[in-house]
Amino acid sequence: MAKKIAKTNAARILDKEKIAHEVLQYDPEDGKIDGVSVAAKIGYPPETVYKTLVAAGSSKQNYVFVIPVAEELDLKAAAKAAGEKKIEMVPVKDILALTGYIRGGCSPLGMKKLFPTFVAEQAQGLEDIIVSAGKIGMQLKLAPADLVEVVHGRYAAIIVV
User: Fold this and answer.
1) What is the pLDDT of residues 78-127, one digit of tens each?
2) N or C: which end of the chain has fewer CB within 10 A?
3) Contact (Cβ atoms closer than 8 angstroms) between residue 131 and residue 147
4) Contacts of 85 (CB under 8 A, 6+ apart)
5) What do you get for the CA distance between the two ends of the chain, in Å?
């Protein structure tokens, strides 16, 4: 008998909104939970697996940026997209209190608060993207447009080119 997959808040939100998605699981026991390793473990190219980054603007507003795992957030471009003078990454020690998620298991869905969210514009050309399900060892595969819609986000040019 297959082990029942525990639902995460992120998956529950997609269910509630009737958004098609697939839960993908991987074994985090070896400690390799960086995005590129996760992409290899679940058998998808890194261009389709996205990481969730949390940053704060000079206005003290927090933002969420969803970018391909092998890419780097362009802080200047992110600030421009968010209409901020400057943006800095939120320290890892503050992520749990702010989002309800831990580093390595931070989903753009189901954070304690819905922050302005920007998805790398490259996602628009993909049929599906994969993001954290909100728990280390679990990912969610869904259409980028569905993700943008459910988090009230928008696409932006936010990665280092």
Assistant:
1) 999 999 999 999 999 999 999 999 999 999 999 999 999 999 999 999 99
2) N
3) yes
4) 57, 58, 79
5) 47
User: How far, in Å, CA of 76 to CA of 84, rounded?
Assistant: 9
What is the DSSP code string of the chain? -PPPPPPPHHHHHHHHTT---EEEE---TTS--SHHHHHHHHT--GGGBEEEEEEEETTS-EEEEEEETTS-B-HHHHHHHHT-S-EEEPPHHHHHHHHS--TT---SSS-SS---EEEEGGGGG-S-EEEEEEETTEEEEE-HHHHHHHTT-EEE--B--
Supply φ then ψ for residue 4, to 5 degrees.
-70, 135
